[in-house]
From TrEMBL:
Database matches in InterPro entries: AsnC-type_HTH_dom (IPR000485), Dimeric_a/b-barrel (IPR011008), Tscrpt_reg_AsnC-like (IPR019888), Tscrpt_reg_AsnC/Lrp_C (IPR019887), WH-like_DNA-bd_sf (IPR036388), WH_DNA-bd_sf (IPR036390)
SMART domains, per database record: HTH_ASNC
Keyword Nucleotide-binding included in the entry's annotation: no
Keyword DNA-binding: yes
Keywords assigned by UniProt, alphabetized: DNA-binding, Transcription, Transcription regulation
Natural source organism: Kitasatospora setae (strain ATCC 33774 / DSM 43861 / JCM 3304 / KCC A-0304 / NBRC 14216 / KM-6054) (Streptomyces setae)
Protein name: Putative AsnC family transcriptional regulator
HTH asnC-type domain segment(s): 188-248
Compositionally biased region (Pro residues): 168-177
GO BP: response to amino acid
Length: 337
């Protein structure tokens, strides 16, 4: 029986969290498959997902290829005068090549991820931002290596067995191409790009809806999606306010790690359940990690109990006050609408 009880703190209930975790494993999983693994009815899953999607509490978007996106990506930190953080953050969020924007605690720093090509990036850094007159100081850190990004984080509501049961099954290997080790990405034609673009802001669009939007047979859509999925080009990300999952603190940690321990430290942090992003970067520090914690006490424990033994020589902690844009999606909660 499905019972929906309102949480006085505004948190998602247990089943909703399990649904979020299921979508984190496979953003295109069908309700029937989720229902079978979670032990509830398909009708319940469909109704719950419809409510979560309908209210905007949860969205599933397509993420670009992780390794390709990381090459040339920049982490941007802007120091701004009091009262100017929100306009700068919203202006950055309006740009297509900026998928992540946060306003940091204190209201005088804006953080963003820039994926634009070199000309667009240079126009932003050397033209548009200085022209505002509202940027007191800026720092751009080049991404040197990706250990984990936001699509790899799981909210911890499923058992390992349930997660394994929901994991997408790899397709049969074509001759000479073992699964997980393709000799190369397939060349993409115009239809492939249109299909990927159509999934960008709603990665759960059905085969029929995609076929109708692109004016191609549904069988073509299914075949193309299987091929794109096998090539690792259908990564999805669940956009959900972490506060709905009981996460009270979102923090960016700028770390200085001994060079000889950088790879091991990055890999260890990437596997930690509280971490939702780890990158090796240029700049005064050489590693940055994004961390979810229930509260400030838990963030303190993370620093002392997790970072301490990993060879971190120095840590700067920047706490997110407001997430403005995540994975290319502007968050309505930022402005209260």
């Amino acid at each position: 029986m499905d019972t929906e009880t309102a949480d006085p703190a505004g948190l998602l209930d247990g089943l909703d969290r399990r649904l979020v975790h299921a979508l984190q494993v496979d953003g295109r999983a069908e309700p029937g498959r989720i229902a079978e693994v979670l032990g509830v009815s398909a009708r319940t899953v469909s109704r719950r997902l419809g409510r979560l999607f309908g209210t905007g509490a949860v969205r599933v978007v397509r993420m670009p290829d992780a390794r390709a996106a990381a090459l040339g990506a920049l982490l941007l930190r802007l120091r701004v005068p009091p009262g100017r953080a929100d306009p700068i953050a919203l202006a950055l969020a309006a740009l297509d090549g900026v998928p992540f924007v946060d306003v940091m605690l204190g209201g005088q720093e804006v953080s963003a991820v820039v994926l634009a090509d070199a000309p667009a990036r240079d126009r932003l850094l050397y033209g548009r931002l200085p022209a505002t007159g509202a940027v007191l100081e800026s720092a751009a850190h080049a991404v040197l290596h990706l250990f984990a990004d936001a699509s790899a984080w799981r909210c911890g509501a499923l058992t390992p067995a349930e997660e394994a049961a929901l994991a997408p099954q790899p397709p049969s290997d074509p001759p000479g191409h073992p699964t997980g080790h393709p000799a190369g990405r397939p060349p993409l034609d115009a239809l492939d790009h249109r299909l990927l673009d159509a999934l960008g802001r709603d990665a759960r669009r059905s085969h029929a809806a995609l076929a109708g939007a692109l004016a191609v047979p549904e069988s073509t859509v299914r075949r193309r999606l299987r091929r794109l999925g096998a090539a690792g080009l259908l990564r999805t990300h669940v956009s959900v306010d972490p506060r709905l999952l009981g996460v009270g603190v979102d923090a960016n940690l700028w770390l200085d790690v001994e060079p000889g321990r950088l790879a091991a430290t990055g890999a260890a942090l990437a596997g930690h359940p509280q971490v939702h992003g780890v990158l090796a970067v240029s700049g005064p520090g050489n590693l940055t990690a994004a961390v979810f914690c229930p509260d400030h006490a838990a963030l303190y424990r993370f620093q002392t109990e997790v970072l301490g033994p990993l060879g971190v020589r120095r840590a700067e902690t920047a706490i997110v006050a407001r997430a403005v844009k995540r994975a290319g999606i502007g968050l309505r909660r930022f402005d209260g609408r």
